[in-house]
Design goal:
The structure is a single chain. The protein is an alpha+beta fold and 129 residues long. The protein has a single domain, classed as Alpha-Beta Plaits, CATH 3.30.70. The protein is built from four helices and five strands, in the order E-H-E-E-H-E-E-H-H. It has a five-stranded mixed β-sheet with strand order 4-1-3-2-5, with helices on both faces. The longest helix is centred in the N-terminal third of the chain and has 17 residues, at 19-35. The structure holds flavin mononucleotide. Flavin mononucleotide is lined by residues 25, 28-29, 32-33, 40, 42, 49, 51, 63, 66-67, 70, 72-73, 93. Flavin mononucleotide binds at residues 25, 28-29, 32-33, 40, 42, 49, 51, 63, 66-67, 70, 72-73, 93.
Length: 129
């Protein structure tokens, strides 16, 4: 059974603000997620992080345990954790290229209080942005 988890967190220091810090996360994630048949996409915006993860329960849970241990972010909060019939994300690790534009399309200017519905909406429209 496939599951989707979407969580939000807060970047620690300059994580997500520098190309290097993002490249480090994307590199490891691409490799691990491919191995674990996970698909994912992540958004960094003004110190806030939003990530969607899809895959088998055990694989998703293993990644969440690593994420909870990762000192590069804090305030981990799960917005959505639900079984799904099909994936909406098809790459091991995608990066949202223009977070401000995407947020604007769902009427947000910040991720600090993003809701489950808004997170799903962002996932729906991310390709069209
Ligand atoms: C915002 C953020 C998103 C991350 N996303 C993933 C991910 O999708 N997959 C992954 O394997 N690691 C991800 N990581 C890294 C993990 O927290 C952890 O450092 C990594 O999985 C450890 O991999 P390793 O055991 O191969 O060294 C992410 C880290 C951060 C800060």
């Amino acid at each position: 059974m496939l599951h989707r988890v979407i969580y939000a967190s807060e970047a620690v220091g300059a994580v997500g603000a520098s190309t290097l810090s993002i490249a480090q996360i994307l590199g490891v994630s691409e490799r691990n997620n491919r191995r674990d048949h996970l698909t994912s996409c992540v958004m960094f915006h003004q110190g806030h992080i939003l990530q969607a993860i899809e895959g088998q329960r055990a694989d998703v849970d293993r990644l969440i345990r690593r994420l909870l241990d990762d000192p590069r972010h804090s305030g981990f909060r799960i917005l959505i954790d639900a079984p799904i019939s099909a994936r909406r994300i098809h790459e091991p690790m995608g990066l949202c290229g223009d977070p401000a534009a995407l947020l604007e399309r769902v009427g947000l200017n910040c991720l600090s209080r993003v809701t489950a519905n808004e997170a799903e909406a962002l996932l729906d429209i991310r390709k069209a942005a």
